[in-house]
Design brief:
With 513 residues, this protein is mainly beta. It is built from 4 helices and 48 strands. Helices cover 4% and strands 47% of the residues. The longest helix is centred in the C-terminal third of the chain and has 8 residues.
Amino acid sequence: MRTSMIVSLVGFVNASFLMCDSSLSGAEYYVSNSGNDDNPGTTPAQAWRSLAKINAFRFAPGDVIRFEKGGVWRGQLIPCSGGKEGHVTYTSYGTGPKPQLLGSVEKNEPSDWEPVGEDTWQTGPFPVDVGNIIFNNGETCGNKVWEGAALDRQNQFWYDRQSKMVKIYSRHNPATLYDDIECALTRHIISESGRSYVVYDSLHLAYGAAHGIGGSGMHDIIIRNCDLCFIGGGCQAARKTRNGWRYTRYGNGIEFWSGAHDIIVENCRIWDIYDAGLTNQGSKKNSQYNIVYRNNTIWNCRYSFEYWNRPKTSTTHDIYFENNVCYNAGGGWSGGIGAHLMFFGNSARTYNFFVRNNIFHTARSWSVVIADGWSGLENLVLDDNVYFQPSHIPLVRWRSWGDEKLFLPRDFDVYKKVSGKDAKSRLTTLPGLVVAPVRTELAVNDNQKLKVTVQYSETNTMDVGVFALYDSHDDTVAAVGSDGVVKGLRPGRTRITVTFGGATATVLVTVTP
């Protein structure tokens, strides 16, 4: 997913950091679902098979680990650090979809579930809390509750800590209702605390209930061209109150915790995350610096980007969130509130913090939240962004003056004046969709992918193909998938209607023999 936005300037960041790809040529290792851990792993024909083998092997700086495209691995990846002479790279090989690293246990067979009461079924046991259940690859998700007595609606589920079983309310065996059921475990899919000089490239992480990539104290990390989806929802903490137990859920797409520095996240797609798509945050004395998030597409996350750092002995500097497309914050499976930029209370000494040249399109609650006690607010640069927000939903929630102020879209100029932020940013109304081609002729069984964009200005466009809805007026002539690919089925003519954000466009399709 790309935009034609003006390229951001990152010259403030140390040049050697931006050139931190591996310089040393190391060995290459291959991993395939058809491999064998007794193999040497050094060619596709002699590939390894498991994450356990990779986690146990000690890689050297410059080494490259390649997962076969189209493959699926379940469990947790524990990466190996490289060094100043070269990164350790985890990437892919072959053809097909990106290799998947899944943090879930599959429960697809009717025999996986047993009845334990009226309209109640159980499965397990599981080694840790199950934070989410994903049905049919994201068609719908379960609704987590905290006690068995609360199970009274379809797909509500409860993780019983004593038995380590999941119980779910369902009128029928869940495996007879859905083709795929993923029970997401509360642990990071990639756990990288203390790791350094690592590259992740062209991987797909999904169905974990903690963080997709998480840890503390990491540095010299590159994450690029990766997909992360349906992550989070696990139980982070439980405490007893006067009104009973209170539970906190968590789970971010990519999180850098306490002491992270010299990091790039670029060209990734991140969607349907319980908490934040991207975040760096921390507590106890630490320094976070030289972190760049650029050219990513983020949608259906509670927060597109979240930041805070504490206490006042901590430092944050040279953070760049630029050229990203953020869509529909709060619209994912976690539901409820949503903000594109969530700046919680920040007491760390903070400077050179840039949020520029992004598109923030629709947030369920606010596009921007600035909390009380935000140290270094004058050093937070918000500018050259494009905002689209429904007129009745606040654009900015500002709590940094001791009292709360809400700015609706109509108050955009007032917000800019009193805050000193977003001076050159633009608030826009949604123009019509641009769909290409507007006419297409296909032979039977041929395919044509539609390109769907929104033009905000001469220099700002957003590719919305992944968000749009598609409908064929006659799906016996031509069918269209959720990815916008039209397939000719029999000779004739039909129309494809494309819908996004209330705007529609039509494509005329002719199918020839």
